Amino acid sequence: MKLLCWNVRGLGMPRTVRRLQQMLRDLNPSVVFLSETKLRSAQMAQVRRRCGFTKGIDVDAVGRSGGLSFGWKNSCDVSLRSYSQRHIDVIINEDYDEKTWRCTGFYCAPEEQHRAAAWNLLHQINDMPGIPWLIIGDFNEIAFLNEKQGVNKER
User: Fold this and answer.
1) Can you give the residue ranges of the Endonuclease/exonuclease/phosphatase domain (predicted)?
2) Which domains does the chain have, with CATH numbers?
């Protein structure tokens, strides 16, 4: 199974949607997680369906930030566990080799004062130790200062 995770930084522009569609055609993933869509859930659902992912869950952006989408193709057996402004948590059953695993799409708060709550969310939903768990997304964390891009480099 192929999975694509992308921080799209906004799908409001037709050019970005075309780029997403091309990437999905080239890579042909079964599951896609998009963060920072900056769209309302109804708008994101339209984009997701146009990209060939008829099933999924979309979470509203708040103002001009955030927004999540987790989509999967009809051939996938995916069950939604929970979602919030910061995560979408699903169980994936792969019929061809009878494997069940968990995938959580995560978007950590970019503001430092909100990060602890976002990380605590992962601790709270960590309630299924018996199956493999993949956490994907944008953690808004860096290991080394030289990894940081942008104007605010003193953190």
Assistant:
1) 5-144
2) 3-147 (3.60.10.10)
